[in-house]
Amino acid sequence: MRVVVLTGAGISAESGLPTFRDADGLWEGHDPMTVATPEAYDADPDLVQRFYDERRAALARVGPNAAHRALARLEQHLGDDLHLVTQNVDDLHERGGSEQVHHLHGRLGAAWCTACDARHAWSTTLADRPPCPACGAPALRPDVVWFGEVPHGTELVEQAPLDCDLFVAIGTSGLVYPAAAYVHYAIGCGADTLELNLEVPRVSDFSRSRRGRATDTVPAWVE
Ligand code: BJW
User: Is residue 111 a known part of a binding site?
Assistant: First the structure.
């Protein structure tokens, strides 16, 4: 049984990390979705860097929840027949025990040098933005994927893995492409499809849905 699991911000919400579109409130007076863009970075890099510095610090204060841990147990059971793809930039899947995680939208814990293309680990101690350790240019930005940028390793997801028996989406609004289209690739390959979400998403083409908190629905589905 080949299973693809796609996760979104909702799986980390109960760990204490806000989602994007149901976040109740603004960050320093800004909608988070308008800060996480190349246009915002070009206009005010310090503002955007501060947004990511704070999210990196918040991530260090929280831990994985029962839903992350359940997916790690599923990996132990299915091995290479599970493909876990996350849109999240946090590392809660890894800290919950998952070993193979594809981060489509990058990682908070990495910096990308726009001058020489090198990648580096990025901890809170790098928040004062030193130059790139590889080339010396002051050109490090968060290694995350903003609108209009190409998600990481899409070819690795969109070829064999989506030809699966079951496609499961957990805690994602399904509004952001290319991830939003993965359910259609999977349906085209004959897969069963299941969606686990707190609310009824605005768009849904899944054959089965379960409403509820990820910390309830994911362990219940995995066991
Ligand atoms: C719970 C819960 C609980 C809450 N339990 N559930 C085709 C059509 C139209 C547009 C496009 C298209 N193709 C491309 C585009 C453009 C664009 C796009 O999609 N625009 C749309 C807005 C229409 N896409 C892009 O630009 C992408 N690039 C691209 O397509 O390049 C071309 C290309 C592709 C492939 C190959 C070659 C070329 C890039 C998209 C980058 C998205 N970046 C962000 C920021 C990342 C950095 C950061 O984290 O700061 O990614 S935006 C933001 O949205 C973030 C998320 O990963 C992403 C998805 O959000 P998610 O995870 O779904 O969160 P929410 O908040 O939306 O939903 C939370 C859900 O959880 C809700 O449903 C709740 O109900 C639920 N929930 N608590 C269970 N306890």
Answer: no
